[in-house]
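pls ignore typos typing on phone
heme C + seq
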Amino acid sequence: MKASWIALGCAAVLAGPSVAAEVDYPTGYRAWTHVKSMVLEPGHPLYESFGGLHHIYANAKAMRGYRGGSFPDGSVIVFDLLDVERGGNALSEGARKVVGVMQRDRRRFKDTGGWGFEGFARGDPKQRVVGDQAPSACFACHAEQAATSQYVFSTWRE
Ligand code: HEC
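k done
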C-alpha cells in the first residue's frame, strides 16, 4: 500500500509541468539515414534562424514514419545546420551552426504533440539553445503539419 502511494507520487511529479523533459543528444546521427538537404539563402523568411545548408537525418524508427507509417516513440530526426561557403562557382559546407532535434516520446513531450524539440549550438551536447522555449520557438510552426504528417515537414524520396 505504502509503496504504491510512493509510486503514484512519483508519477505525479514526473507528469507535472515543473519537470521539463529533456531531449537527448542524438549521438551517432551522422550514420543514420540521410533524408534530404536544403539551402536557405538571404531573403528566405527563415534565414535569420535557419539560414545556411541543412541536412536532415532520421534514425531507423523515424524512417517508419517517413515511409508512410506512424512515427513510434524513440523516433529521432536531426536538422544539421551548417554555414555555406561560396567559391569557385560552388556551395560548400562550412562550420556547423546548430544541431536541431525532434525526439518522439508521447508521454514525456505530450504538450508539444509528442515530440521534444532542442537545438545544440555548434553540435555541442552541453550547449542547449531551446530548452523550455520549445512550444513557441519550434512547436508553434511544426504544429502546422500536425494533421498531415505528424508535425514533420520533410518528406522521403527514394
Ligand atoms: C517557422 C517554421 C519553423 C520553425 C519555427 C521551426 N521549424 Fe523545424 N522545420 C521547418 C521546416 C519548413 C522544415 C523542413 C525543412 C526541409 O524540408 O528541409 C523543418 C524541419 C525540421 C526538422 C526535420 C524534421 C522535419 O520536420 O522535416 C527538425 C528536426 C526541426 N525542424 C527542428 C526544429 C527545432 C528544434 C525548432 C526550434 C528551434 C524548429 N524546428 C523550428 C519549419 C520550422
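The chain is about 25% helix and 30% strand. Residues 36, 38, 46, 56, 77-79, 100-102, 117-119, 130, 137-138, 141-142, 152-154 surround heme C (CB under 6 Å). more later
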